[in-house]
Amino acid sequence: MKMTPEEYGRLAQKASPPSPMGKNLLMAFLCGGGICALGEGFRLLYQWLGADEELAAAGVSVTLIFLAVLLTGLNVYDNLAKHAGAGTLVPITGFANSVASPALEFKSEGFILGLGAKMFIIAGPVIVYGTAASILYGLVLWLFRLY
Fold this sequence. Notes:
mainly alpha, 7 helices, about 80% helix, about 0% strand, extended
């Protein structure tokens, strides 16, 4: 059966359910805000336990990364992401999930060719272009401070 691209597009659009944008926005806002509120709660807890502001902030990052990787390993984070959408991708937990998911998926291929080679398959471009952008921005800032 031969189809033109336009016919295929109409058929695909007809078969695809409409996206509930309002619900998706609300879920992303609530989940992303919930993750950030959890981080704020940890920050206050760590400061209450005696950590200074800088140490408490570092502790929050480590704690949220640990929880995201743990929940990814237990297959909870991916199920949460199905309902929360972008709310789970934006915070630091989304980055931790993007490193842990491929590592778990390819661990059967061994530590070198599986885990080591595939761990940054999703997060790698973010690291590379983020680092390149920070260097470029730093150079621009340095140039403007010279004058």
